[in-house]
Design the sequence.
């Protein structure tokens, strides 16, 4: 495990993943933890399909894994980064509904509000940000987002450019 950590530090993802795969065989009771680290390495490389496959394997093989909240949050974050906003919101909602007391639930609420804003659903996004304002630790970030959306709603939709 230390060798894998060294490879991670050196940015040698392929070697780190190889070590974690070896550890899965040697320590099957800890396979979920090692798969999570493999998925993290794939995420760093922007190989989201492979990361999702590793996360999915953890969820299938260990349905009661304590890593579930983090896995669902990471799945949502990957969808969000890919611009798959509906999928991201669905995955964020899983974190919110299944793990309401987990620290990532509040981050998932921010993710939903952000995805709504990015998808142009400003009124819904504003509603979510307002509901989040009292709970989110960095209230100033939420206030800035609220002010920005309110300003955009006042201005109305941007005029469309005429095609030449």
Sequence:
């Amino acid at each position: 495990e230390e060798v894998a950590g060294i490879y991670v530090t050196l940015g040698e993802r392929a070697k780190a993943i190889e070590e974690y795969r070896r550890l899965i065989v040697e320590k099957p009771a800890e396979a979920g933890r090692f798969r999570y680290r493999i998925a993290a390495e794939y995420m760093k490389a922007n190989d989201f399909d492979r990361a999702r496959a590793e996360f999915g394997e953890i969820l299938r093989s260990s349905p009661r894994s304590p890593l579930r909240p983090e896995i669902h949050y990471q799945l949502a974050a990957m969808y969000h980064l890919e611009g798959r906003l509906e999928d991201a919101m669905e995955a964020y909602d899983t974190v919110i509904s299944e793990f309401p007391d987990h620290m990532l639930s509040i981050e998932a609420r921010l993710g939903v509000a952000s995805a709504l804003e990015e998808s142009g659903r400003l009124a819904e996004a504003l509603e979510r940000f307002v509901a989040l304002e009292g709970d989110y630790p960095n209230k100033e970030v939420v206030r800035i987002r609220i002010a920005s959306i309110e300003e955009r709603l006042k201005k109305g939709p941007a005029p469309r450019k005429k095609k030449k």
